[in-house]
Design a protein that fits this description.
It is found in: Nucleus. This protein is α/β, with parallel strands linked by helices. It is built from 15 helices and 13 strands. 39% of the residues lie in helices and 22% in strands.
Length: 343
Amino acid sequence: MDWDQLQLGPRITAAVRRAELKSFRDVLCATGLDLQRLTGLSHSDIQQLLIAAAATFRRRPPVTALQLQRGECRSLESGLRLSVGCPVLDQLLRGGLHVGGITELAGESGAGKTQLALQLCLSVQYPAQHGGLSSGALYICTEDSFPIKRLQQLISGQSSLRSDVPPTLTSSLQFSDHVYIEHAADLDSLHLCLSRRAPLLLAQGLVRLLVVDSVAALFRSEFQADDWLERNKQLLTFSSRLHHLSWEFTTPVLCINQVTDVFNQSDNSLVPSSSSVSPALGLAWANQVMVRLLMRRLQATIYRSNESSTLRRLEVVFAPHLARDGQAAAVWREGVRGVLNSD
């Protein structure tokens, strides 16, 4: 392995070679502490190594702040976005999901992750002038059965949620005909779906959104704690496939993730300080995600007419083009809406 291509400088390059790390996979499958122990490098040096290795492994250059300022990163700074279907939440995300790379949506059970994913499956079917991509969605379920009743409820509420769209357009779209559902009970079936079914649908122009619900389910169930190295290798293979599909077909990828409890957050920069949970699957997965969002249930209830909803908060944990911020939201019959005045 020629580590000089990462352009990390002679000191870091020499330390990596002394540690006999043979490939980018070896770096990305190890924890930060293990890399520090093997190489003798500082924490900041290890972070620089991980970022460079992850970017090269994905075969695309890392995005810098200067590139974003100059508008050189077309995939992030172009006008092409997938709207969430709510202007308040779209404002938080600067227009919605960008079309290149993986967006992770993490949160506890009942936080509203699947609700938002289903909403995006409908939003993608609108034309570009209304925040869509004029195509369908592939929804891959790895743990629970697909919530078809909730999808139908969201479809019936589109005229209410999307008041910005002409009613004639909303009524003309056959939403349920363009949501393709796959069930992956194990990693083999997931690999088969991503290597055969998904490319076929994308190449035919039938879908422009991939949803995996959830990414943690299979990797948690098929590997024991001491199988972390093999699990991380499988994770990198999985994420590499997602990145390839996303960039080849200019398609947003949304991965729903579970969370684990955090007991000491003093050194954890990947979760908001206000949170007591962290997205599952650790650093190996975090390095494959371009945008990490966290959805939380708050200890408050909001009322509207004859409906009530537990208040939620959608937070940007990290993203190269978004401010680290959050927005209150509620789940209503017609879908997920941002809440401007939550006090």
